[in-house]
Specification:
Residues 89-212 form the Phosphatidic acid phosphatase type 2/haloperoxidase domain. There is one protein chain. Helices cover 67% and strands 0% of the residues. The protein has eight helices and no strands. The protein is globular. The longest helix is centred in the last third of the chain and has 41 residues, at 195-235. Helix 6 (158-164) packs antiparallel against helix 7 (166-190). 35% of the residues are buried. By secondary structure, it is mainly α.
Length: 237
C-alpha cells in the first residue's frame, strides 16, 4: 500500500472516528429514538411488510452475496476475475471477519435496545453502551448493530478490490455505506437500535478490513524472505 494512500486512509478513519465520538458525546441517541417511539413502543416494530422489506430480505441477500464471494474464490465471476486467488480469499476473510467481529461485540455488551427501555414500554433503564459494567436491567446484547453489518460488513472488502479494480471499489464503497445506513435507520425506526449503534458498526467493519489488509500485506512481504531462507537451508550440507 503506497504511503500516501495509507495516510489518506488513516485520515478518513480518524475523521470518521471523530464524528462518531461527537455523536456519542452529543447525547442525541435517546432524543432521536423518541421521534419514532412512544410509551407504547415503536409502531413499526411488528409491521410485517416493513420487517420483510428492511430486515428479512436484506439479510437473505447479504448471505447470498457472501456465498457468491466464497464460490468466486474457486470460480471467479465478473470483477473477481481481475483479482488473484489470494486477493479473493482475503476479500472473503475480510467480509466474514468484519461480520463476526460485530457478532462477538454484541455478545459481550450489556446495553439493551430502545424497545427494551422503560420509556418505550420496556423494562430497562437507558444506559450508554460505554458504561461498561453498568447493567440496565434489560436483556442487553444490542450494541453494536448486527443487522447493519449485513451491509457494512462488505466495507472490509474495499481494501482488496481497490488494488486492481478502483472504479468498482468506489461503487462498492458508496453502495455499502448507503445500504448500511438504510438498514441502520430502518432498525432505528423499529426501535431495535440507536443511531450510534449503526455508526459504530460501520466503523468497526471498516477497521476490521483495514487491519486485515495490513496483516495480509505483512504476510505477503515476509513470504518471499521465508522461502529464500528455506531454500538456503536446504542447500546446506
Amino acid at each position: 500500500m503506497p504511503s500516501w494512500t495509507t495516510r489518506r486512509v488513516l485520515g478518513w478513519t480518524a475523521a470518521a472516528l471523530l464524528l462518531i465520538i461527537l455523536w456519542d458525546a452529543s447525547g442525541l441517541d435517546l432524543p432521536f429514538a423518541r421521534l419514532f417511539g412512544t410509551a407504547e413502543g415503536f409502531p413499526l416494530r411488528g409491521n410485517k411488510a416493513f420487517v420483510m422489506a428492511f430486515h428479512e430480505i436484506p439479510r437473505t441477500v447479504s448471505s447470498l452475496v457472501v456465498v457468491a464471494l466464497i464460490v468466486g474464490v474457486f470460480r471467479p465471476w465478473l470483477f473477481l476475475r481481475r483479482l488473484a486467488r489470494r486477493d479473493r480469499v482475503q476479500l472473503v476473510v475480510s467480509v466474514l471477519g468484519a461480520m463476526l467481529l460485530i457478532t462477538l461485540l454484541k455478545k459481550m455488551n450489556t446495553s439493551s435496545c430502545p424497545w427494551d427501555v422503560n420509556e418505550f414500554g420496556g423494562v430497562a433503564s437507558y444506559v450508554s453502551h460505554w458504561a461498561l459494567g453498568v447493567r440496565d436491567m434489560g436483556p442487553g446484547h444490542c450494541f453494536p448493530a448486527g443487522h447493519a453489518s449485513s451491509a457494512f460488513g462488505f466495507l472490509a472488502g474495499w481494501f482488496v478490490i481497490r488494488r486492481t479494480a478502483p472504479e468498482m471499489a468506489t461503487r462498492w464503497l458508496a453502495v455499502t455505506i448507503a445500504l448500511g445506513l438504510v438498514l441502520g435507520l430502518a432498525q432505528q425506526l423499529r426501535g431495535a437500535h440507536y443511531m450510534s449503534h449503526t455508526l459504530w458498526t460501520g466503523f468497526f467493519c471498516w477497521t476490521a478490513g483495514l487491519l486485515t489488509e495490513w496483516a495480509c500485506r505483512a504476510w505477503v512481504q515476509r513470504k518471499p524472505v521465508s522461502l529464500a531462507t528455506a531454500s538456503k537451508e536446504e542447500l546446506q550440507p
